[in-house]
Amino acid sequence: MLKSKFSKHRHEAGTDEAGRGCLAGPVVAAAVILPDNFEHKLLNDSKQLTYKQREIVRPYIEKHALAYAVVFVSEKKIDKINILQASILAMQIAIGKLKIKPDFIIVDGNKFKSYKDIPYKTIVKGDAKYKSIAAASVLAKTYRDDFMQKIAKEYPNYYWHKNKGYPTKQHRNGIQEFGITKYHRKSFKLLPIQLRLDL
C-alpha cells in the first residue's frame, strides 16, 4: 500500500525522474502534488506497471493532481554537467513549475540539493512507497517514452521505439553499425571497450 504523505505539511510534492541509465535522449523529471484523498488502484512505481497501465493512470493523475509539472533536460546538458546533476536539475525545475508552491518535497533516491529553502527528504525506492512519487514516476516515464517514440521515427536504426534509449543489444548494434546521433549522450560509455568507436 502506497502512503499518502511523508510529512504533515499540506502541500507535499513528490518528484522522480526517468532515463538516467539511457545512452540517448533527455532525462525527464516530474513533480506532483496530490490531494490527500487521491486513489487509483493501478498507481505504483512506473517500472512495476505495463505500458497500458501507465497510459490509464497518466490522464487520471493529470486530472486529479492539485499540481504537476514535467521537465526535459537535454542530452547536451547531461554531457555538460553529468547525469546526476542533470537529474537533480530536472526535478528542481519541475518543482519550480508547479502552480502551487510545495511546503515539503519528497524525492525518489538518495541524492538531491536544497531548493529555495523548502525542506525535503530523499527516499530510496520512494516510487514504491509514496503516492506522489509514484505519480511523478509515471508522468516522467510516459512523457519520456512518448518523446523516444517520436525520435525513433527520425532514427529507426536504434530501435528506440522498443528500447527507449536504454543500452540493449539492438541499440548497441545500431551504434556500432551506424555511429551516433545528435541524441546520444557523448559522455556515456556507448559501447563496451571491445566495440569502441572513435568519436
Summarize the structure.
The chain has 199 residues and is α/β, with parallel strands linked by helices. It has helices at residues 51-64, 75-81, 83-97, 131-154, 160-163, 169-178, and strands at 12-18, 27-33, 67-73, 104-108, 120-123.
Write up what this structure looks like:
The protein has 199 residues and is of the alpha/beta class. The chain has two domains: 12-152, 2-Layer Sandwich (Nucleotidyltransferase, domain 5), CATH 3.30.420; 154-195, no CATH class. It is 37% helix and 15% strand. It is built from six helices and five strands, in the order ββαβααββααα. It has helices at residues 51-64, 75-81, 83-97, 131-154, 160-163, 169-178; strands spanning 12-18, 27-33, 67-73, 104-108, 120-123. It has a five-stranded mixed β-sheet. A hairpin with an 8-residue loop joins β1 (12-18) and β2 (27-33). The termini are far apart.
**Overall pLDDT metric:** 95
Topology as a string of helices (H) and strands (E): EEHEHHEEHHH
Task: Give the terminus-to-terminus CA distance.
Answer: 48 Å
Oligomer state of the chains in this structure: single chain
Write down the domain tally.
2
Structural class comes to alpha/beta
Count of discrete alpha- or pi-helical segments spanning 4 or more residues: 6
SSE order and pairing:
Elements (H helix, E strand, L loop, with lengths): L11 E7 L8 E7 L17 H14 L2 E7 L1 H7 L1 H15 L6 E5 L11 E4 L7 H24 L5 H4 L5 H10 L21
Parallel strand pairs: 1-4, 4-5
Antiparallel strand pairs: 1-2, 2-3
Helix pairs in contact: 1-4, 2-3
